[in-house]
Automatic annotation (TrEMBL):
EC number: 4.2.3.1
SUPFAM superfamilies xrefs: Tryptophan synthase beta subunit-like PLP-dependent enzymes
Needed cofactors: pyridoxal 5'-phosphate
Signal peptide: none
PANTHER family: THREONINE SYNTHASE FAMILY MEMBER, THREONINE SYNTHASE-LIKE 2
Family, per entry: Belongs to the threonine synthase family.
One of the protein's GO biological processes: threonine biosynthetic process
Identification of the protein by name: Threonine synthase
Domain Threonine synthase N-terminal: 2-78
GO molecular function, one term: threonine synthase activity
Gene source species: Labedella gwakjiensis
Amino acid sequence: MQFISTRGGSLGQYTDVLIEGLAPNGGLAVPAELPRIDAGMLEEWRELDYIGLATEVIGLFATDIPRDDLRQLCESAYGAGRFASPEVVPLSDIGEGLTLVGLSEGPTLAFKDLAMQFLGGALEYILTNRDRVLNVLGATSGDTGSAAEHAVRGRDRLAIFMLSPKGRMSEYQRAQMYSLHDENVHNIVVDGVFDECQDLVKRLSEDIEFKREHHLGAMNSINFGRISAQVVYYVWAWLRATDEVAESERAAFEVSFAVPSGNFGNILSGQYARLMGVPIRRLVLAVNENNVLDDFFRTGIYSPRSAEKTFATSSPSMDVSRASNLERFVFELLGRDQERTAAAWEELRTTGQIDLSAEKHRFESEFGIVSGTSTHDNRIATIREFSDAVAVVLDPHTSDGVKVAREYVETGVPMLVLETAKAPKFANTLAEALGSTAPVDPATRALLDAPQRTVDMANDEAPLRAYISEHALR
């Protein structure tokens, strides 16, 4: 399989784009042609465990990794002891026609682990084969940072420079990242919001000379390795949701997914699963008060907000106004036309928005995407309701997904809500919703009390360049 940039040009094969991250012209890597998944393949995969299914699905993209090696990478990522659930991704009925897809069983208690555990091992495998090193440069609004750092820590050929917005994450999220003292982990706290952190990453990544000199790469969702590994759990969830459906009815049996979204990477993976042939009726996009994406899918006009107008909310991982992965969706929307996609992002650069209102009628009819917004009051009420009704405690982001999902439930169509993280990561919000503070277990207390190591930095690329130049692996 060959990969291309959304803005033009060829990028090589799977292992090439994992190392490259952002394309040299600022575009994102996408398959030159999406692979297909048909009903026969889905039935062949039904009896596989998560390791086996990941090997098959990722293998549709990673055609340049020998299958035995890919199987070993998946075993390392998803094998015994890596995830709390033996299924890796358990599904549970939470009532009202909703099923919770348990994506937060990994080491950092967030859905990002499903992709990061694979990507960390895959990058090490590629770097070893090529006798190279890679310095991962990324930005996080909450869970990406800890998942990436836990996947990279202690690896000889990888270092990570993770930018996070000062004061914008939960205490638990900060502790998970900042308490890591591995020499190859660098936590850089930027005096700004997530979008400003992300802009710094993009500016350095688009400086080809600097990127090459310092061996920069990416592990956030601009890296296609993340997207490919996330497609797996959409296939897994469809299989588990249809296990009890009559075999004669399975091929066309549709489910819907509700996806809390910040940077659009998670739901983009679902869009690929749908385009590839998995029977998905709707993809329900849920956002918080930073509802730029909801505005886009209702109007067709993408108009990111400034840093000053990006709210700090109680679902902080979604405090994003510039969704990097939207470019991959627009590429599909525009008929996979690289020139039109590049022109759209030039329009964004020069005018501050992209007007695709002429295409908005296609969002649901052709791509199955609908959207909705959840507020602080909504998430508090949702957490409280489901705790009382079914004794399930949702994290704030997942509660946003549940709130919006309830608006789109259809009789006979299972609504699968993707869990974002475990609720204890957001103790203050839980206390407000449930009326009391849950006891802190010894492991959490030890994490919160552990010494933290960070580097404070202004929202300025000059000191960031200097710091990377001094500390990057060579």
